Amino acid sequence: MLRAQLRSRLAQVWPELVIDAEAENGEQAIALCSKLEPDVAFLDIRMPVKDGLEVARAIGGRCHVVFVTAYDEYAVTAFEQGAVDYVLKPVTADRMAKVVERLKQRLAGSPTDLTAVLQQLGARDAGGPLRWIRASLGASIRLIAVEDVVYFQAEDKYTRVVTPEGEALIRKTIKELSAALDPEFFWQVHRATIVNLRAIARVDRDYRDQPSIVLKGRSETLTVSRTFAHLFKSM
Question: Which residues, including other chains, have CB under 8 Å from residue 215's CB and lie 6 or more apart?
Fold first, then answer.
């Protein structure tokens, strides 16, 4: 879904661009770069197997690199100091247009040396995204793996944690969860709702072109508010 969004944004602002291939993980990205020798590689920092930083080290100065990342003040500062191009997830048309404009100018020269920025990012002590949810059940504590959560929804003073097996209540707010969850897999789609992208079966649209989310294995649908509708605009 995220690759589809990136591809759509690129098609909007750079229609003459030819996309040679898409990689599902870092090892595949390295192999494809070696085989196809592209001019530009868009590397998600949180790719599986090998992350985007490892891929950037492996391909060296063979092509221009654009990092795709969730908002991270440390990372963005490092990119800007290193004059490295990046786009934030979810990818917006405005940001992509600016990156493409700079890329077109840079293609006339050699790729940027990424050594300094990769060292700076690699030195970070990253705690990583939230992996477990602790939910109180009477006198007991239930541990829920974040990857098993279908969605989070605010409910009075609590947040409801919905999994395929059932529900639990926690005291973390949607705002706190949004900052702690991995944005690779969890998107806020309403002021009261965060959904696991892996749990989405499809996204439907009503007569007003408003998207709603149909979930895998659950009968309810999730409302996408106007504030967050742009996330699904080009899908």
Answer: 150, 151, 195, 199, 200, 201, 221, 222
CA angle 94, 99, 100 (to 5 degrees): 95
Q: What is the pLDDT of residue 72?
A: 60
Q: Can you give the pLDDT at residue 166?
A: 86
Write down the pLDDT at residue 125: 42
Say what the pLDDT of residue 216 is: 93
Count CB neighbours of 153 within 10 A. 19
Specify the amino acid at residue 209: D
CA dihedral 111, 112, 116, 117 (to 10 degrees): -100
Q: Does domain 132-232 have CATH number 2.60.260.20?
A: no
pLDDT of residue 123: 57
Q: Does domain 2-122 have CATH number 3.40.50.2300?
A: yes
Q: Please report, for residues 61, 82, 176, the alpha-carbon distance to residue 40 in angstroms, rounded to integers and kept in the order given.
A: 11, 17, 36
Task: Enumerate residue ranges in the chain where pLDDT < 70.
Answer: 71-83, 120-128, 136-140, 234-235
CA angle 197, 80, 175 (to 5 degrees): 35
Q: In the chain, what are the domain boundaries?
A: 2-122, 132-232
